[in-house]
Amino acid sequence: MNYAIHTQQAIPTSSRDEQATAQAELYTHIETQAEAVAPTQDPLNARDRRIIGEIIEVQPESVRTIWIEGGITVWVQLVGGGRLPFDRDWFATRVAQVKATLPETPRERNERLSNELEEACTVFGLYHGEINWLSFSTKLYQDGRFVGFVGCNKEEWYARPRQYGVNRVAGSAKDVIASLGVRTAVAA
């Protein structure tokens, strides 16, 4: 009786390495294409990460994302790969406590003021020049015509129609722009 003996043929190491490299390149290409088609948006901003970091006592940069499971559990995913579960109500209470005591960074302040200025400019049909981020001030224009200067000191908005003169002060960007005599834009 004849028996057939089958042996497994070894794949050369260099062939395996080439295949692994090609597979990794393919995965990278697929991820790049997926990101181009549907970019993932980070649901957390720097302030959110600071708040979560304060609550769970980690560096803000180590917080990757957060989600709620089943309406009960808040999960915090860390960059290093760990996950931490928290009761939703406890976590919400801690977020409120930390938010109340966490000071706003200069960058967060500038982002908030910039958003408020953009909204006010849209209402009046204005645009502004380059913002001086240190003093948070800029020039306003309407149809290519200079309207005035606007800025914010501490939490008080100011405007003036000329380079030098008395500042007009208000509590919001919209109110201070209105003090320059600019009327709201009318939709055509």
Walk me through the structure.
The structure is a single chain. This protein has 188 residues and is of the alpha+beta class. 40% of the residues lie in helices and 23% in strands. It contains five helices and eight strands; from the N terminus they run ααβββααβββββα. It has helices at 13-37, 46-56, 88-101, 106-124, 173-178; strands spanning 63-69, 73-78, 83-87, 127-128, 137-142, 145-153, 156-160, 168-170. It has a five-stranded antiparallel beta sheet. Strand 7 (156-160) and strand 8 form a beta hairpin. Helix 2 crosses helix 3. It is elongated and about 105 Å long. It starts with 12 loop residues before the first helix and ends in a 10-residue tail after the last helix. 13% of the residues are buried.
